[in-house]
Amino acid sequence: MSDLSDYSSTKAGDSELQDFLMVEKQKAQFHAQIHEFNDFCWDKCVDKPGSKLDSRTETCISNCVERFIDVSLLVTNRFAQMLEKGGGMH
Predict the structure, then answer these.
(1) What integer is the mean pLDDT of 22-44?
(2) Full residue range of the structural domain in which residue 34 is found
(3) Distance between CA 90 and CA 41 in Å, rounded?
(4) What pLDDT sits at residue 1?
(5) Domain-located, residue 42
(6) Phi, psi (deg, nearest 5) at residue 42
């Protein structure tokens, strides 16, 4: 009988591993999106680096940060909704 309990604990471990890997993959995708966003804002807002930001560049960067926060909250809320619909992660 111990063979059967070993099998079920292995299956539970596999499920936990799959859940962990899915979360890590989502984190990696999110971080990749952050890097893309940073590159986009830099290219959009900074014409040429200098010792001081002009008001246009500062406003542009500020707006980019605000949009980034909006998107981060949207993504976080969407993940939370997915977890609620899926019964949560075990």
Answers:
(1) 85
(2) 13-87
(3) 38
(4) 47
(5) yes
(6) -60, -50
